[in-house]
Amino acid sequence: LEPKVHVNEYAKPGDPLPVVRPALIDPEKGRVMPADAGLAPNPYFNYGEDLDIHWSKDSRRFFYVYNQRGHQALKVIAVDATTGASRVVVDERSQTFIDYSGKQFLEYLDDTSELVWMSERSGWNHLYLVDSRTGSVKNAITQGEWVVRRVLDVDPKARRVLFLAGGIVSGQDPYYLHLVKVNFDGTGLKVLTEGDGTHTVTLSKDRSLFV
Question: 188: part of which helix (H) or strand (E)?
Fold first, then answer.
């Protein structure tokens, strides 16, 4: 048998990647309005598989998350559904690395035009309440020398978050996980588990009980 040469193109660090960008289409006017690429240069996502679009309740705008290649910038960008104009709502930056896979959480609160956003901007992984219209941080939902490990439930009516935290119980191994609840304004923080160990939690359907 004669040998055959097979060539496969494989992008290296720094090589341009084909990407899919969001665009608004007005079928009546035949107009296409691409989102502002200048706000999201060199994105990490490609072919659109990671481009998660979220429409506001009134359909006046949509949001998407931009993850910059290199993982030192992570943004939530809003696009006006009438004009196609883009604006940055959350602009997360790091000189080192943003853990987009293990420490990223975003919950849209459409009724109140807010976001619950996870960030290590203080040096500790915590949750923040953000005004989705202005992009301003209304307040830190959690803070302190401990970390939010995983959000289990966000209740927009009760304005309460249930999450697992590490290092929040003094004297215990900081890797142990505990169930904690807190209000959106940062008040009412309460650790709901006590045992000296890590905890795996299952919530009831109405979130009033846990095992």
Answer: none
Tokens for 183, please give them.
Answer: 């209000």
Count Cβ neighbours within 10 Å for each residue of 100-113 and write b for 16 or more, e otherwise: eeeeebbebbeeee
Task: Give me the amino acid identity at 147.
Answer: V
Vertex 24: Cα angle to 21 and 30 (nearest 5): 125
Does residue 127 contact residue 105 with C-beta atoms inside 8 Å?
yes
In angstroms, the Cα distances linking 166 to 42, 123, 153, 200 are: 34, 14, 17, 13
Q: CB atoms < 10 A from the CB of 98, how many?
A: 20
Kindly report the pTM of this predicted structure: 0.91
State the Cα angle at 52 between 51 and 58, rounded to 5°.
Answer: 135
Distance CA 17, CA 11 (A): 7
For residue range 49-108, list pLDDT tens digits in order. 567 899 999 999 999 999 998 999 999 999 999 999 999 999 999 999 999 999 999 999
> What is the spatial distance between Cα 81 and Cα 84, in angstroms, rounded to a whole number?
6
CA-based max dimension of the chain: 74
User: What value, to the nearest 5°, has the Cα angle with vertex 62 and ends 124 and 142?
Assistant: 20
Q: Which two tokens stand for residue 186?
A: 């940062």
Main-chain phi, psi angles of 67, to 5 degrees: -115, 110
Residues 94 and 198: their CA atoms lie apart, in Å, by 30
DSSP 27: T
